[in-house]
Amino acid sequence: xxxxxxxPETPAQALEILSxxxxxxxxxxxxxxxxxxxxxxxxxxxFVDLSRFEAWKTIQLKGQVLExxxxxxxxxxxxxxxxxxxxxALSMGASAVGSPQIRNRxxxxxxxxxxxxxxxxAPPLLxxxxxxxxxxxxxxxxxxxxxxxxxxxxxxxxxxTDLRPNELIQKVSININPKRKSIFLKSGxxxxxxxxxxxxAVSIELDENTAECLKARVAFGSIAPTPVRIRKVEEFxxxxxxxxxxxxxxxxxxxxxxxxxxDLRASEEYRRYLAQVLLQEALRTIKxxxxxxxxxxxxxx
Amino acid sequence: xxxxxxxxxxxxxxxxxxxxEHQTLxxxxxxxxxxxxxxxxxxxxxxxACSVLxxxxxxxxxxVLALQADGKEILTIEGVxxxxxxxxxxxxxxxxxxIQCGYCTPGMVLAxxxxxxxxxxxxxxxxxxxxxxxxxxxxxxxxxVDAVKMAAQTSK
Lengths: 301, 156
Ligand SMILES: Cc1cc2nc3c(=O)[nH]c(=O)nc-3n(C[C@H](O)[C@H](O)[C@H](O)COP(=O)(O)OP(=O)(O)OC[C@H]3O[C@@H](n4cnc5c(N)ncnc54)[C@H](O)[C@@H]3O)c2cc1C
Ligand code: FES
Ligand code: FES
Prior knowledge:
heterodimer, A: 301 residues, alpha+beta, Uridine Diphospho-n-acetylenolpyruvylglucosamine Reductase, domain 3, Enolase-like, domain 1, 3 domains, 5-stranded antiparallel sheet, 4-stranded antiparallel sheet, 37% helix, B: 156 residues, Ubiquitin-like (UB roll), DNA polymerase, domain 1, 5-stranded mixed sheet, 5 helices, 5 strands, binds flavin-adenine dinucleotide
């Protein structure tokens, strides 16, 4: 095996390489790439190491937009105050990933681009209407080409995304809304290193006075080839009060809206059941606590 | 064969190595530098036997490209304590009897050290979470958890 590894100092250099070399694969944390290489699932002729782009490792608030660099690790996502405040489900999702070792290396960009149906960062970001900024090599004027894609349009199938071979994910952005609370729940087989059987993120904007649900997002992982939003449930919840009857009804709708797979780890019926239970638990938690911080504590106690 | 130079610091000493470009940090440590305290179990991130600290962070060295360690500081089990002065975690592992075959031990010690560096007085849940990337097929984990608790006490 002879694979070149190039370690460009800047994104512009990396994009230049990718525009010329079709079979060069970007590597961020390497936690997926090196496993795939070992298993013979990929046969690149070269790697482009992204790990030197310090500017892509930051989380910042620009006006009303929360910008998360694609090289931010799960450990950073888990602990960062801006993520905990404005996108708590993402902090919870990242904390549910694999092990300390994987959380210290695995990046947000790698998590999304791997396009696993079980990726733990995907449902939280779908529930916050996240969008991606994708870059490709400079045109004749010398500026890098930029394209924005809604995360809902990014996932195309198992391991397939809308990213072109000459593009890189630069950052993931969220329009913040302090009234929007969110939660992430995951059910796996073992506690650590468990791939989700089903994972779920819900974000809800409640009317402070009436407790009516103004906006709802419900996103599941592991129940379809890609992480998905369940729009029928969202539409049902919007305009209603979150009471027990509504919560029951919402979880019944989920039953009919999803067609999970059966595999070695769980049957279709069991996944359906898990989806229902997780949704009920998420909505009840949101109802009983108006503060995102409280939910976080509930999760980890 | 495509090789490149990697300059890094291992256990406090600078090292310059020539290595194939697709190789891992684990290969660099074991096969190039001969530091065989770091073990290879699965090679896929599941077992944690290859755990080392990279700039103070716990990582699976089997999932880090050697070239990504260029300019970084690595701590392996060989640099954790000396025979005369064991690290409190190592001492506690011996006293509690948290070692059977020993294959997982280097990785466990580094995971425990990384945990205690961040949380000096962890609760049981935090200990189990801190060690959750390290498999042990012999001990059943309880003695390892107890050893970490003891190390936290003696480090105070
Ligand atoms: C033992 C183990 C347990 C795991 N557990 C979980 C888990 O519980 N939950 C979970 O969600 N995941 C889990 N994972 C999967 C994985 O580690 C994470 O999803 C991680 O975030 C991947 O990020 P990375 O930076 O390591 O990706 P890499 O391996 O570096 O890259 C993955 C893919 O993304 C591409 N890529 C990376 N960055 C970019 C970018 N900026 N622009 C364009 N393309 C890019 C690469 O070319 C490659 O195709 C686990 C993995 C292992 C090995
Ligand atoms: S050998 Fe690296 S995790 Fe098992
Ligand atoms: S002591 Fe044998 S694997 Fe842990």
